[in-house]
User: Fold these one by one.
Assistant:
Number 1:
Amino acid sequence: MIITVTMNPAADKTVEIESLKRGGLNRIRKAEWDAGGKGINVSKTISELGMETTATGFLGGNTGREIEKYLREKGIRSDFVAVDGETRTNTKVFEDNGMVTELNEPGPYITAAQEEELLKKLEGYAGEGVLFVLSGSLPMGINTDIYARIIEMVHKKGAEVLLDADGEAFRKAVQYRPEIIKPNKEELAQYAGVPEFSSAIETAKAAEALTDAGVGMAVVSMGAEGAVFLEKGNRIFCPAIPVKACSTVGAGDAMAGALAYAWENGMGMEDKIRLCMAVSAGAVTTQGTKPPSKELAEALKSRAVFTFLG
Ligand SMILES: Nc1ncnc2c1ncn2[C@@H]1O[C@H](COP(=O)(O)OP(=O)(O)O)[C@@H](O)[C@H]1O
Ligand SMILES: O=P(O)(O)OC[C@H]1O[C@](O)(COP(=O)(O)O)[C@@H](O)[C@@H]1O
């Protein structure tokens, strides 16, 4: 069973304009709406691959109700804590020259009682064979140790964790040794205290410091460059599968969804990597933050190329 936790969900509004004029009037050519936020995108991907998943976290207001309706229509079970404020809307501005500008709102304030209610729910789900996906930024009112606390709590009951977070929340949580992490290269560089990595091997070495410290598997996504996979002493680099890009927003979440699906289904390393590369490349071809169809992901799998890094 896979439970996704989205502390700060969002309606993703993807808009297309010719070119963004700062301080001027911008006419939108086309707008697309998606239920989003990192964990919700992970649930959308898992569901598209044909597996059941439950989405949890905090939802509020009309936007929250719209997201629940969307999940219901997609057949994704949702079990959110209701909050007083309005779930945020994140606007993604796509210009004709390929430039993407993201405007992410802060989201509603979460009270201590609402946090407690979510933790109780998660504890109730925790057990052997359960994988929790903890991903995304934290809303106001939630302390940066929340992911660390959840990992400690669910590990005690035999559950496993995939973590996709950044900053302080990531730093604190990795100390509790999640089974899987999926930072992108910027997030890992920030953790390692360097401005950027100059190569895949440098990226792999930084991630290895975490697998050496007890994290089970690390996948570092590198956007259009590809991804590095570290598991059981293997360092593998895969260049991104070339596709016609439509929207790269949500590609990281699609990869995390594929990873969670592959992990829960006990796939071997090669199959796991092929699925991650195919699903994330497929997500880039869809509009907004929609995952690719299972058929497209299956068709792309054979195009993943592996390089073992020394
Ligand atoms: N332009 C692209 N073409 C093909 N695949 C891509 C492209 N951009 C991203 N991907 C795939 O999506 C994965 C996740 O993208 P990335 O941007 O690193 O994630 P995040 O959204 O977490 O920052 C990459 O590792 C790659 O496999
Ligand atoms: O929780 P955060 O970091 O604010 O990110 C939320 C945003 O990221 C997304 O989940 C997309 O993330 P990725 O591009 O990293 O896959 C959007 O759906 C959402 O608007």
Number 2:
Amino acid sequence: MFLGIDCGTQGTKALIVDDAGRTLGRGHAAHDLIERANGAREQEPSWWVAAMAAAVRGAIADAGVSGRDIVALGVSGQQHGLVVLDETGASIRPAKLWNDTETAPQNEALIAGLGGAAAWFDQLGIVPRTGYTISKLLWLKENEPDNFRRIRRILLPHDYLNYWLTGRAVAEYGDASGTGFFDIRRRVWATAPLDLIDGGSGFLAAALPELIAPDAVVGSLTAVAAEALGLSTRCLVSAGGGDNMMGAIGTGNVRAGVVTISLGTSATAYCYAEEPVTDADGWVAPFCSSSGGWLPLICTMNATNVTGRMVSAFGHDIGFLSEALAATLPGAGGLTLLPFLNGERTPDLPTATGSLVGLRSDNLTQENLVRAMVEGVSFGVTGAMRRILGGRDPDRIFLVGGGARSAPWRQLIADASGAEIVVPAGEEAGCLGGALQAMWAARREAGTPEPLSAIAERSIALDADKTMRPDPARRAAYDDAFGRYADALRRIYGVRA
Ligand SMILES: Nc1ncnc2c1ncn2[C@@H]1O[C@H](COP(=O)(O)OP(=O)(O)O)[C@@H](O)[C@H]1O
Ligand SMILES: O=C(CO)[C@@H](O)[C@H](O)COP(=O)(O)O
């Protein structure tokens, strides 16, 4: 048996699968979030550890198996968060997260510091957006110099969990490619951006962990970790990766031609590529995959965090989202909502707020407002998706993340994109990706290597009941609603969709 763990923004999930990738059991535990009006979004790394232990124990109980029989595990984690450890290995402060927009001024200063976007692109193959790890380090130096001086180790969320599990601090290419101090073409740390922060003293470079290959084993569980999770100290830990990289593995997106959209706290769209992808406008994040290649990706900061918030502001539980979609027509009666409640990364509007356009006395209903929010979130990702596909429309999309549980939302994405929507059985693609990567690493370690593509091919099944086909009759209404969304974006923010 293999175990996948996914530390998302709202919670940690765990999934146990057998050798054929079939789901045996799942667990879940929610996270708190520190949110401040200035855009700060933070979590204590210790919360992730506690949630991981609860989710894994829940999955073991759900599967009715012995945790001691789990051979290997892989950890998927929200990208870009900054975990800083002191000389004792303790976390210095809460981690600033991928959706923290407080560091927008530091990001701007760093882009200018290296000579502008073109210089970044030349040197690293990537231009940092607010939310990437690098601006959090400059923020720490400027705002908490005592904490900055105590830094001895810099880790991403999933690397921190691997460190907690094994005692070994390492990083792998996929998640590292979202830091802003990694050369995405050559797959090595790039210290020039760190020099801008520490004056070239090498202080920050010395805190970077060793980079390992995606099919490497980090180590096995410490006695403390094995006890906390209910596993054996023989259990191996694979390299893991960013949640999108692991979602890619969990949807078989390890070869060209597969497209995945995740509706989690963020909405993302990504597809595997053999070569690094360039995008002069900077909408596409040209990340590495955690399977060997690259993973060009579009990420918007506002997805189920804002749809869930609107539903609860109206006093309902999440089931109301599907009810509202079912009770309304495409276009939300003429309402258009730009859902940038937490600033936005794609397009690059870190200090933006949400906007509602087209309100009339005949369309002011809770249901239309929820639909307008869901449409705004969906258009942000479906409208930008062509950029990762060289301008093409996909025929089929793997839909994952919490939002994929809503049948009317799946239908909306099918109708608005013109693609067939499929959902992997077991739902939790990030967890499944972790488990499959663990299988890949364990096979290599045992001297019986198997290509990841073959493991994915035989392990990923679709949940046929959740497939949605596009209805051409609704396409025109969505094209019209998207036109209004694009128009609002241009008029309010001067940005072309
Ligand atoms: N049936 C549903 N309909 C719509 N949204 C849902 C449904 N079930 C869950 N969600 C949304 O998914 C969110 C969790 O998504 P998830 O992918 O687990 O987020 P993350 O990985 O960022 O923690 C919930 O907070 C909720 O808003
Ligand atoms: O920043 C990104 C991708 O670049 C986000 O996708 C985070 O990785 C958070 O993921 P979820 O919590 O939405 O799964």
